[in-house]
Amino acid sequence: MKILCYTDLRVDPRDLFWHRDLGLLTKAFRKLGHNAWLVVHPASESTSKIKNQKSKISNDPVIWASASDVRNPSWWQKHQPDLVIFGLWTRPKYDPIRCAALSATRSVIERADSDGMRTASCGLLSYLKRRYDFCRDLLGKAPLGGANLAALAYAAACVAATPWMERRLSRTLKLLPALTVETPTALSLWKGLASRIGGIPSRVHLVPHPVQSGFFELRGRPRKKNRIIAVGRWRSYQKNFPRLLMLLREFLPNHPDWSALVVGIGKPASFHQPRLSFLPSLSPPRLASQMKASRVFLFTSRYEGCLLAGAEALLAGCAVIGPQEVPCSSFYRSFYKRSPVLLSKNRLVLAGDQPPDLGIRSLQPQVLLAKRIFSPEAVARKMLRIARCLGVSTCKD
Fold first, then answer.
1. CB contact at 8 A, 302 and 328
2. For labelling alongside 44, which of 184, 206, 282, 368 has CA 20 to 30 A away?
3. Which three-class secondary structure state does DSSP give residue 153?
4. pLDDT tens sequence across 227-240
């Protein structure tokens, strides 16, 4: 079966993102015996000569396309795909691309990168907060007073525009034969939204984001430390770095046998806290080794979609803890029985009944379950099951 995985990103041929969603899926489909290709745009004029061609730079399964190519029905018809998977985030501006692909095959699946709070009708207060947080991230280092006012104005404008946004989104949902979301909470919200705006709820499916299980899966004899690890883009307002520091600075002095590692940022100036270390962003193999040596993964985000680092931590044998108001907290809690550290009433505390450290034997059920859910091959098989419902023969799966 021929599968095209397309995202509207401009990519340097020397920096293809095989570690991300559609890149991992492309490789997984090929591993399962399918003729899968990643479709992306060349980043500059220097690579435009390879558009409409399979990659001449390496043996990678890539088709380079121009922005006009993917809006042209004949381009999709020429490639004759059996299945198309879009990473277009359900944005209505991409409807011409969707229509062009649908002229070649009715088997189109779109990935929705969202926590489910797509419009204000999904929950007014939660939606306001998401839009406010999003705008604060965009404003970066703008003065606090001005940033707050601008973020509030942006959130209010999004709420006011909800009827217009939902009319446009309704047309998009009616185009798509299938839509996938990444968490149970997002699934519930998207199905409810589809019902309200005239979409078809049965077209919305739960398919988690794949992770690089080859790096993160815990094997052998792990040497777990009493250590909390936190990973993120900590300069982002969404990740709530001040809250992370507050929790760790309260917890570590009272528990001398525990330490913490924060990955993704350098050590703050004039910061001194025993047993608290900082590292910049790490490559997947190095990050995996740090996770495998830790017992707890902590996040403090104001909101999250799938929390990809949390899935990686589960594969590495960590308990994943975070704010209860963030829905993916309860999703990840279902993967393990007990955590040695709990987040309770905005404080980190040791669990009253400390789970024994039995090594890989006690962590194996968690790791195997996470692998069945998040490995690229498992996610690819879920996509193929949806494709079968759309009438595609997937005999090689």
1. no
2. 282
3. helix
4. 999 999 998 889 99
